[in-house]
Design brief:
The protein is an alpha/beta fold. The chain folds into three domains: about 110 residues, Nucleotidyltransferase, domain 5 (2-Layer Sandwich), CATH 3.30.420; about 60 residues; about 90 residues, no CATH class. About 60% of the residues lie in helices and about 10% in strands. The longest helix has about 30 residues. It is globular.
């Protein structure tokens, strides 16, 4: 797909968003409220600027971007939602010293101009996927709280009355976790497409119901990615190499630019896959024979699992 040459960079915050329009002439700037009225005013401003077809870039800042992205996507615009870390690094390369909402919007627009078709176009998910994603994120919050409560019970709390409260909290959140797990299972079963994809994902040795539900929630449509490498990069499992001349040759690491929660959940399945997934077991044996560390092998296994999930 050909991306529109006219670029709009959006720097968004809770109450407002700044825009920078690059359409071949002098950059144009404006500020709008981050609400439905502000969205309509943006559309009117774009019409006045004779820029009704454009490629829009915005950072994935909290949840502030979602309503505007949906509005622009529904209006027929090409929208790319960009990892803030990429914009930060791009600003570092360009030696940007000034940081204002206006300059940030211009930097995002220039980033879109430079990266162009390397950027993925954002696609809104259907209501079923959005529901599953919200449940998955809520489950993650519950697990975090349970971990904190268990740590306090084991190492901090001495007062009996406080300990009793902590035990009650633990029982409450464990019960809530069980209910959420049931809702996640029901959400997958209610959608024929999800149910079919879920069954396929769990045919991969190492992938169980929890990991499959995560993948369904965050990658509902694999066709949004042109290659498996893009999916690997989306989850921050692509290698980051630092070499320069003969003096700088650091050990390669994963970029960690993508979904950190997904990466964390993938670690244990990767350990299982090293033992029971024939393709990954073979990879592990070859890497062990060539002297790779266990951690490097597990990261390679995580990467291979993502590729297998993308391919089913």
């Amino acid at each position: 797909m050909q991306y529109h040459p006219t670029k709009l960079g959006i720097d968004i915050s809770k109450r407002t968003f700044d825009v920078c329009l690059l359409n071949g002439s002098k950059p144009k700037f404006e500020k709008f409220r981050n609400d439905p009225e502000g969205f309509k005013k943006l559309e009117s401003w774009l019409k006045k600027a004779r820029s009704t077809e454009l490629h829009i870039g915005m950072e994935a800042t909290g949840n502030y971007w979602k309503a505007l992205a949906r509005f622009l996507n529904t209006s027929g615009h090409q929208v790319s939602v960009i990892n803030p870390l990429k914009i930060k690094r791009y600003g570092g390369y360009r030696l940007h010293s000034n940081k204002t909402d206006k300059t940030d919007a211009m930097m995002i627009a220039n980033f879109c101009l430079q990266e162009d078709e390397n950027l993925l176009l954002w696609q809104d998910v259907d209501e079923e996927t959005r529901h599953l994603r919200d449940l998955i994120q809520y489950r993650g919050s519950i697990l975090t709280m349970l971990g904190q409560i268990k740590n306090r019970i084991e190492s901090i709390v001495e007062d009996e009355s406080v300990l009793l409260c902590q035990l009650e909290d633990k029982a409450h959140w464990e019960q809530r976790l069980e209910l959420v797990n049931q809702e996640v299972e029901a959400a997958v079963k209610e959608s024929e497409a999800m149910k079919k994809k879920n069954a396929l994902l769990q045919t991969i040795p190492g992938i169980g119901s929890v990991m499959a539900s995560y993948f369904l929630a965050f990658i509902p449509d694999v066709s949004a990615f042109k290659t498996s490498r893009q999916v690997v990069a989306y989850f921050g499992l692509d290698p980051s190499i630092q070499e320069s001349g003969t003096s700088v040759k650091k050990q390669s690491r994963i970029s960690k630019k993508g979904n950190a929660t997904f990466r964390g959940k993938l670690y244990l399945p990767a350990i299982v896959a090293v033992r029971f997934n024939p393709v990954i077991k073979n990879l592990s044996e070859r890497m062990t024979a060539s002297g790779h560390l266990k951690k490097e092998i597990y990261v390679a296994a995580m990467r291979k699992l993502v590729i297998q999930m993308y391919g089913v």
